[in-house]
Amino acid sequence: MIIVSASGMLDGGRILHHLRACGPEHRNTIVLTGCQAGGTRGARLLAGERSLRIFGNDVPIRAEVAMIDAMSAHADADELIAWMKRAPHPPQAVYVTHGEPSAADTLRLRIEREMGWPAQVPDQEQQVQITEHHAAAHAMSA
């Protein structure tokens, strides 16, 4: 059995049923695709963890684990910068909220350097209020 997991990081959905049923068998292979964010089952499996808690039970994972980096559905930094360059007006701020902290900060620096736009990586649970006044002022300058 070969189990191919999309970029869901093994945190929900029917993949959990497949892992529970097929993960303990050493003749099977679990193929992870795309980013496996820190703290997720997918990241732990890639780091060598061989038991995952699934539906309240510890499931031994004896299957081979493989990774394919090239199948992420997310845009990479070059694609994001190219998309931002098409914006008719620069935004008042850019908040990088996706990716591991070091990668997010690298993108933040690149946005500031290449685009000249103010950018930040917000802290976990940080809230930012975007007012209608800012949106209306931006729309009127268009």
TrEMBL record:
Domain of life: Bacteria
Gene3D superfamilies recorded: 3.40.50.10890, Ribonuclease Z/Hydroxyacylglutathione hydrolase-like
Domain Zn-dependent metallo-hydrolase RNA specificity: 58-122
Beta-Casp domain span: 1-45
Pfam families linked to this entry: Beta-Casp, RMMBL
Record key words, sorted: Exonuclease, Hydrolase, Nuclease
Keyword Hydrolase: yes
GO molecular function per UniProt: exonuclease activity
Record PANTHER family: CLEAVAGE AND POLYADENYLATION SPECIFICITY FACTOR FAMILY MEMBER, INTEGRATOR COMPLEX SUBUNIT 11
Name used for this protein in its record: Cft2 family RNA processing exonuclease
Organism: Microbacterium phyllosphaerae
